[in-house]
Amino acid sequence: MFKFDKDQAIFEIAGVKVGGQPGQLPPVMIGSIFYKGHKIVLDESRGVFDKAKAEKLLNKEEEISEETGLPRIIDVVGHTAEALIKFVDFVADKTDSPFLVDGVTADVRIPVVRHIAEAGLSDRAIYNSIDINYRREEIETIREAGLKAAVLQLYNPRNPTPKGRLKVLKELDGKPGLLEAAKAAGVEKPLVDVCVLDMPDIGLASQTVYEVKAETGLPAGCGPANAISMWKRRKTLEPYVFRCCNSVSQALPIMLGANFILYGPISHARYIYPACALAASYVAYNMRFKGVKVDRGHPLFRMFR
Question: Structure pTM?
Fold first, then answer.
């Protein structure tokens, strides 16, 4: 393993720490709830859902988080502002965890961010995301709402190489790069999502995580889950084989220093968490010999006892 020469930022969001040198802190797991096609959602436009099943999923993930030592952030997805407000309010009431405001478009996210400010939840909310298509209204709304955390998504369709993805942090055609935009929005805790495009790209995205951390020192991670959901071969695999492949795909970025993983449906926590906890433990054990002080809550002290 490796230790970055550049100082590595650590941000705390509603009690969850993210960032640091590889192995220093456990990677943060981000599972999605109320996503498109989620069976607990009965009406995705109006935000009608099975509350008992939703609470059961949240509680089960919390148990697995405590068992493995991997902290969590909840990815709250919504396709309309009306629905997302209901989903956010539910998650905020049933958990103490920070959460992503993951509306499918800026038009969905903006009114939800305003609601979050009125509800006094700004310290737990993470805007997802500021990308190359960000609008002035988004930036102003984030600042006015007092959100201090946001995901910066490094999608660069013109140049998807690690260098090309890094470029959008600093410059875009005709407007400031994502770091400057986040600063204008009052964001003090940027989380860099290097963006996974497809299954083969998970390796390249993992390399980009390394490059981002080496150059900026910011917490970085990615979401292999989106690529996995589009993998055509998955339909031909036995369920247990797919789970193995999924687990490897989620754990790989951790080996390259990822501070967070967007692992997909929250119901997958039962097998994704242990795999990622094991990968994180291997990293942390190695890094102790490189002078990195490993947090006592790390999976390293739970997986091998």
Answer: 0.97
pLDDT tens for each residue of 141-191: 999 999 999 999 999 999 999 999 999 999 999 999 999 999 999 999 999
Residue 5 belongs to a domain: no
Domain count of the fold of the chain: 1
99 φ, ψ (degrees, to nearest 5): -145, 150
Domain limits for position 175: 10-15+26-288
Cis ω on the peptide bond leading into residue 129 (within 30° of 0)?
yes
Q: Is residue 298 part of a domain?
A: no
CA distances from 211 to 125, 169, 257 (A): 27, 12, 10
Give domain status of residue 68, yes or no.
yes
Structure tokens at 255: 């080996």
Label residues 92-104 b or e (16+ Cβ within 10 Å = b). Answer: beebebbbbbbbe
- Determine, yes or no, domain membership for 214: yes
